[in-house]
Amino acid sequence: MRILHTSDWHLGRAFHRVGMLGAQAAFVDHLLITVRERGVDAVVVSGDVYDRAVPPLAAVELFDDTLHRLAALGVPTVMISGNHDSARRLGVGAGLIGRAGIHLRTEPAACGTPVVLADEHGDVAFYGLPYLEPALVKDAFGVEKAGHEAVLAAAMDKVRADLAARAPGTRSVVLAHAFVTGGEPSDSERDITVGGVAAVPAGVFAGVDYVALGHLHGCQTITERIRYSGSPLPYSFSEAGHRKSMWLVDLGPGGSLAAERIDCPVPRPLARLRGTLEELLADPGLARHEEAWVEATLTDPVRPADPMARLTERFPHTLSLVFAPERADQDPGTSYARRLADRSDQEIAEDFVAHVRGTGPDARERAVLRDAFDAVRADDAAREAV
Ligand SMILES: [Mn+2]
Prior knowledge:
The chain has 386 residues and is of the alpha/beta class. The protein folds into 2 domains: 2-263, Metallo-dependent phosphatases (Purple Acid Phosphatase, chain A, domain 2, 4-Layer Sandwich); 270-326. It has 11 helices and 19 strands. Strands 6-5-4-1-15-16 form a 6-stranded mixed beta sheet. The chain starts with a strand and ends with a helix.
């Protein structure tokens, strides 16, 4: 069975001030062409279909159009909700849409109920595990501690129990939206840390033939059978080095597996440039970036006049300007933005305590901070779920 694995479309999301809907529509065209030309038997979309719980109308219309075109091709599709989606909203009409072969899995309770497709080698059971917010599902799943590993392990127990009751030789695919240990994050994923832990070990997915992951926006291989497709488009400059793709997975008899990387169309390359304004304007080596979406980090010791207007004369698609003055006689890189870069909310809060009190938080205080962040996140998720 030939499966096309993608995720993290984030329909409706903008990249800095550039709306991405046109690029997202072009990606959908590419997806449908790939399905047709490569003889795809099933499409899996591993969450974050939308960027927000209440997406803009144009994004909903693009999604609607996409579903109609997939259904018209007659290629079964399985989709789950991610941490950016409102599971309840995305799941509206799922029963009816399912009759057209588009299977939206947004209900945690249905983790152990697969969509079963078949080819000449027998059945393939597709288990859709929507993003599981630990605080919201821990009671229903009967787990004591609200953590990602515990709730995913409970969901996978349901998957393995169902699989064990099926005909021997039934192949299996799991869709999940999670941060798996060993994965490389970027700046455009929303933090899902709970209790100071975001990542779950790959071992929780033991016993299935292929795990189609969503959440991390870089395409990556955790193990031969556990992969992230990544987002089809870049949503932050930290993804400048990414090659945006989908996985074309051939699941053969006995669960044999071959995966091929399918590139997504590039609307415009990304470039991160660094130097003084004069250097960036004069360096002939930068000519190849003139049509790119540019993030410029200016190292001038004194902020130059009208930097954006002057930069856009050469790089008309400059979207982000960062000032990082380099002074020989001072401690470099102490801007507020620089100090906060790559730090978690928890670390920033701990630093703040240390700053105002002189001593950092002890273990008990760190736990209080962590619980507060978890509560806020669970509260947000609960509100979006309503
Ligand atoms: Mn995402």
